[in-house]
Amino acid sequence: MDELPLNDARTELKEGSAEYNRAELKRFRELCRKHDGLTIPFFAKFYLGVSQQRVDQLMTAGKLPSYTVLGKRLIPCDLLEQFAEIERPVGRPRTLALATA
């Protein structure tokens, strides 16, 4: 979920170069200001009370927004808190037993 557009200058830079890293740091700072900070998925699992695998599934499905900065996935703190406030049923969904006659 990259809401902030990638700068044309940044996309022309070689990944891993000093200029690219400076552009990514600037982008990281902008994201931190916009979202009241960013956290890593490791901390999100404790905050949500779910497994690391489930956090990864939620991010991949787009249900838990995340950004990639310098190859690391980061979760906006404000959106993590909003996600945690949503009431969700616990456990596996019930399946209807098929009537057999």
Could you write a compact summary of the structure shown?
This protein has 101 residues and is mainly α.
Would you spell out the secondary-structure blueprint of this structure?
Blueprint: H1 8-12, H2 18-35, E1 38-39, H3 41-48, H4 52-61, E2 67-69, E3 72-76, H5 77-85
Antiparallel strand pairs: 1-3, 2-3
Helix pairs in contact: 3-4
Distance N terminus to C terminus?
Answer: 50 Å
Helix-and-strand structural type: mainly alpha
Number of strands: 3
Note poorly predicted spans: 1-9
**Describe the biggest sheet?**
3 strands, antiparallel
Alpha carbon gyration radius: 18 Å
What's the average pLDDT? 83
Element-level helix/strand string: HHEHHEEH
Count of DSSP H/I helices: 5
Helix content: 40-55%
How would you sum up the global shape? elongated
Main sheet: strand order: 1-3-2
Strand content: 5-15%
